[in-house]
Amino acid sequence: MNNRELFNTIMNYGAFDRMPVFHWSQWNETTIRWRNEGLPEGVGIHQHLGVPGMWTSIGGTSGLFPLFEEKQIEDLGDSRIYRDGFGVVCQAWKNRSNIPHYIDFTLKTPADWEEHYKPRLQPDPKRLGSPEDFAKAVANANASTIPTMFWTGSLMGCIRDWMGVENLGYFMYDHTDVFKEMVDTIADLVCWSADQWLPHAKVDAGMGWEDICGRCGPFVSPEIFKRCVAPGYKKIRAKLEQYNIHLYGIDSDGDVSALVGPWLDAGVNIQFPVEVGTWKADGMALRKKFGKDLRIFGHFDKMTLEQSHDAVEAEIQRLMPLMRDGGFVMMPDHLITPGVALKDYQWFLKRWAEIRV
Question: 89 and 82 in contact (C-beta within 8 Å)?
């Protein structure tokens, strides 16, 4: 079986004997290190490692359209202050990986939503690109030997990006109905996008992004989530089912444990990447609590790759019961960090390919 067939077999609890092997990505600083350790210039990372990417993605038509015009406000030498495509004023380093420092936001009030953001979240055929690009994306999805995911957008994480964590924290309670309208507007746009792509493309799962949890749990209370956000997921899940797509995943970093249940109730049945983190997330405990309705993608503690081969082997053995249980595809729980030598990562990929369950 190729990686696409393995993914579907594992996630649907069929018979399999190994894990699919692939490479997601790495920090820019990791790439620089690996170039110094033998990764040739001009050679793609997947080509050099001899493994495919994680998945093929189609869709991607449910964000702000058009984006705000990016505008530089001040050049500070090593960093700059600018307004980005989301309308956020931020400061960021120029030449190193970083999360920008957010200074100000265009989206703060219901009036800002009506004037600047809601109009940018409407269906438009231009979102699909040219007919040639659309046809090429569909053909790539249908021919792919790795899983093909339909992009289901972000119902809450994008709003957090547009207005900031603190502003969102107040907004959800001060303007609950408007917050729900925001989520519903995005969900409706995702469903419109699905109706454009899914009659033509062979898709294995819906996949969205949130990143609405930190090391201490979610940025939203389960109660507000169930009232305002879950209906959007349910709407998207129903649309996926119309096209015979039964897997629906969410990418959210941080400690997601308080939202796994509400996500499952709303139709999201794959959690990605279930970071081990400082809170020591336990995929097997989540499986015991929620049963086989919950699938997991990721969950291999990436930090063991900086330690030793013995630490990596111990992590593989920790995850072996979950692998054997099915509904779990192992991969590092985030990007490969700069502390990982190229030769050690290549050893890991070889060991990964040797796993038998």
Answer: yes
pTM: 0.95
Strands 148-151 and 56-58: parallel
Total length of the chain:
357
Q: How many angstroms separate the Cα of 340 from the Cα of each of 222, 331, 352?
A: 37, 15, 16
| 350 within 8 A of 342, measured Cβ to Cβ | no
**What's the one-letter identity of residue 354?**
E
157, 181, 280, 319 from 326: Cα distances, Å: 29, 38, 21, 11
323-348 per-position pLDDT tens digit: 999 999 999 999 999 999 999 999 99
Apex 333 CA angle, 189 and 271, nearest 5 = 45
Q: What whole-number distance in Å separates Cα of residue 65 and Cα of residue 193? A: 13
Beta carbons of 285 and 1 less than 8 angstroms apart: no
- Where along the chain do the CATH 3.20.20.210 domains lie? 3-67+106-354
DSSP labels, 291-315:
GGG-EEEEEE-GGGGGT-HHHHHHH
> What does the pLDDT look like over 69-123, one tens digit per residue?
999 999 999 999 999 999 999 999 998 888 899 999 999 999 999 999 999 999 9
Q: What single DSSP character describes residue 100?
A: P
Quote the CA–CA distance of 218 and 199 in Å, as a whole number: 35
Q: Which CATH class is domain 3-67+106-354?
A: alpha beta
